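Issue 218. Parser rejects a valid record. Input:
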Amino acid sequence: MQYNLPLYPLAKRKPKPTPGGYMQELIMTTTFQPTASAPDGKFPSAAFCVFSNRFLAIIVAIIAVRIRHGAVLANNSAPLVAFAPCALSNTMSSWSQYASLRYVSFPVQTVFKSSKIIPVMIMGKVLKGTSYPLSQYVEAFLITVGVAIFSVASKSSDSDTTTEIIGLLFMCMYVCFDCFTSQWQDKIYVKYGRANVDPYQMMLGVNSSAIIMTTAGLIVNGDIPKIIEFFKVNPSVFQYNVITAITSASGQLFIYTTIKEFGPIVFTVIMTTRQMISICISSILFGHSMTWKAAVGATLVFGVLFYQIRKKYMASKKRAAQA
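Output the parser choked on:
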């Protein structure tokens, strides 16, 4: 079922207050009031969604770096060029995710988003030569399967999008670029020292390059006149982009901190399981029913996470006894 949100203010259907993920789908899959450059009523530029996120993020990063270090660039140990590769991959990852929403059904989106742990491990092996034991690959696979089962069994999408080949290509690009991004960021922390590069400098470095790339893309593709025209006819879409940018900028602060302190694998596990945990909490607090398939998926994931926590606890206890 499609939303029908042609006018502002919204009269028939107002979106629920939700995080950026829902707003992304709302922007890219809703049929709004058609314009001359967008006769199908669909928002004409996935690149602008990426641009708006990076635009606000770089403002937040500049303010944070200035407050923390007293200068924007003077105290940076890592040169801005060091952030360019992950800025490019981050931009392409976001663009691919937005672009895929028009061509991929919700279950397929869920499976791809749940499957990033093992690709992140493989990317770590390629970029940094990191070795992971076989048991960690098995645990990652079980978490991936559990989250995919749970998410598909528990949630449905308001979009009636069907899956097309181009959508699968976009999702593959999204996973590959996203895995590269977190591993390259961790490589910067390792190369220049975790004590010398804080999350705010990482946020500034990545978004400085990303804003140049997205701006160039908008100009080259001639998207700017189309976007202005679309906003004039559908001013509510501008609000959706602002909301998405705010949630994206806020999320980046936590993302870079997590990668710095715990590494890309822990970050990916958190991002993979967070959606499932939020659904579980919602089911408990509001009495929503849960299918047996979702329960099996949740049990599998929480079982693996509990095993990992217990394994680390026993290892630390053993090290303390030896000391």
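Fixed in the parser; the record now loads. The radius of gyration is 21 Å.
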